[in-house]
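Hi, here's the filled form for the chain we discussed.

Project: internal
Contact: R.S.
Residues: 101
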Amino acid sequence: MSGKGKAILAHITLIGWIIALILNMQNRDSFASYYIRQYLGIMLCGFAGNILFMSLHNGLAMIWGVVILVAWLISLVGACTDKKSELPYVGKYFQEWFKGL
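And the returned structure, exactly as it came back:
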């Protein structure tokens, strides 16, 4: 599977991310690794934000869900267009924190 295919697969549910990670471990591709790291950060931020905002107010959780959806779309479009498009503000941190993937 190409790096672009693995990058797109990583954006399709948690199971797709796991499959893309396993495929990329067998045959490393820097483009796929970039988006695997980026989507891991999106998933973790979405999960942590939902837990935090649900305890505060459901409206905040809905707004956070929209923010995560927009981040996911930015990342998916970048993967589909063969560009390493970093998420604003947090993308560089995701690449540093998860550089082992």
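Let me know if anything looks off before we file it.
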